[in-house]
């Protein structure tokens, strides 16, 4: 009888190959300025393999992305207002 854990995600870091395109999600996270907190979530998941033990990292990443989305919305609104003022 085997006592191995059920198979789930394999939370290991992939090494990018030279000819491999960067994943669009990774590009988005890099541009957001939240890559460090995303990496912290990945590291925690690789170590613990249980998202419940990574809640501080998950919350920090969520807060960072929410802040980034808010800044992006404000910037788009500002651009929209500037564009309509010039017409």
From TrEMBL:
Lineage start: Eukaryota, Metazoa, Chordata, Craniata, Vertebrata
Biological process (GO), any one: mitochondrial respiratory chain complex IV assembly
Species for this entry: Rhinopithecus bieti (Black snub-nosed monkey)
Basic and acidic residues bias: start-end ranges: 69-87
Protein keywords: Disulfide bond, Mitochondrion
Endpoints of the signal sequence: none
Keyword field contains Mitochondrion: yes
Top-level division of the source organism's lineage: Eukaryota
Residues annotated as domain CHCH: 34-66
Disordered: region residues: 1-25, 65-87
Name listed for the protein in its UniProt record: CHCH domain-containing protein
Compositionally biased tracts (Polar residues): 1-13
Cellular component terms (Gene Ontology): mitochondrial intermembrane space
Main location: mitochondrion
Cellular localization per UniProt: Mitochondrion
